[in-house]
Amino acid sequence: MSEKKPLPLDISVKPKPSVCPVCGHSSYSRAGIHPQCVGVQVDKKHRTQQALEAKAAVNQDDGDAPSTPSPSSPTAESN
Ligand SMILES: [Zn+2]
């Protein structure tokens, strides 16, 4: 029985985890950002875009607002 022992794996070099830009915690994912934080970031961007669009719409409507009569829906009870 003359088996050599396997060489030990070199675990001294650990990959440095990147810091998530959203929550600030270390992330071990390849992109360097937590998957749940990606959703938060996208949602934030979307909300910012919506806010800008709403503000632009308000500024456009400030000039003269076209009067759009709302169609009245008669509630006729037929039984
Ligand atoms: Zn995160």
Radius of gyration: 30 Å
**Helix share bin:** 25-40%
Q: Give the overall shape.
A: elongated
**Number of strand segments:** 2
Counted by DSSP, the helix tally is 1
Structural commentary:
Strand 1 (about 20) and strand 2 form a beta hairpin. The chain has a domain at about 35-60. It has 1 helix and 2 strands. It has a two-stranded antiparallel sheet with strand order 1-2. Helices cover about 35% and strands about 5% of the residues. By secondary structure, it is mainly alpha-helical. The protein is elongated.
SSE layout and pairings?
Blueprint: E1 18-19, E2 26-27, H1 35-61
Antiparallel strand pairs: 1-2
Task: Give me some keywords for this one.
34% helix, 2 strands, elongated, 79 residues, binds zinc ion, two-stranded antiparallel ribbon, mainly alpha
In short:
With 79 residues, this protein is mainly alpha-helical. It has one helix at residues 35-61; strands at residues 18-19, 26-27. The mean pLDDT is 81.
